[in-house]
Amino acid sequence: MKEPYAITLGKRIRFFRERAGLTQEQLGQSIGYSGKAMISRIEGGTVTMDPAKIELVAQKLSINPHVLTNRSELSEEELLVLQDFLTCLTNKTRHLDSIKALIDADLNE
After folding, report:
1. How far apart are CA 50 and CA 84, in angstroms?
2. Phi and psi (nearest 5°) for 80?
3. What is the pLDDT of residues 85-107, one digit of tens each?
4. pTM of the full structure
5. How many domains does the structure of the chain reveal?
6. Are 11 and 43 in contact (CB under 8 A)?
7. CA nearest 13: which of 35, 45, 52, 50?
8. Roughly how many angstroms between the first and final C-alpha of the chain, as a whole number?
């Protein structure tokens, strides 16, 4: 049986927070909470977060927000593979955008 979204989100935040070497308090304060209580509740799956806060958490943890919000049941290893894939894809997109800008600039000369 698939676990509720809030629990999955909380587990993933805890996993990546710990990998980043941050405490609940440090993460909470960095995204506008007064301490660790809210992060503890989120990681425990008792509350969820709005999309804007999920984006902030992802930024602070240097991960793609889709890794946190993907509703598939993934192991920690699979989460890391997904994160690596999304990072690679994002970088390739940036490179393609840069190449396109160079081509456009060259065509406009």
Report:
1. 24
2. -65, -40
3. 877 887 787 777 788 777 877 77
4. 0.72
5. 1
6. yes
7. 45
8. 60
Instruction: Map residue 109 onto helix, strand or coil.
Output: coil
Q: Which two tokens stand for residue 61?
A: 């943890």
Amino acid identity at 31:
I
Rounded to whole angstroms, how far apart are CA atoms 27 and 21?
A: 10
CATH assignment at residue 103:
1.10.260.40
Q: What is the pLDDT of residues 54-96, one digit of tens each?
A: 999 999 999 989 889 887 777 778 877 887 887 788 778 777 7
DSSP reduced 3-state for 40: helix
* Burial zone of 51 (CB within 10 Å; 0-12 exposed, 13-18 middle, 19+ buried): exposed
Range of the domain at 72: 5-107
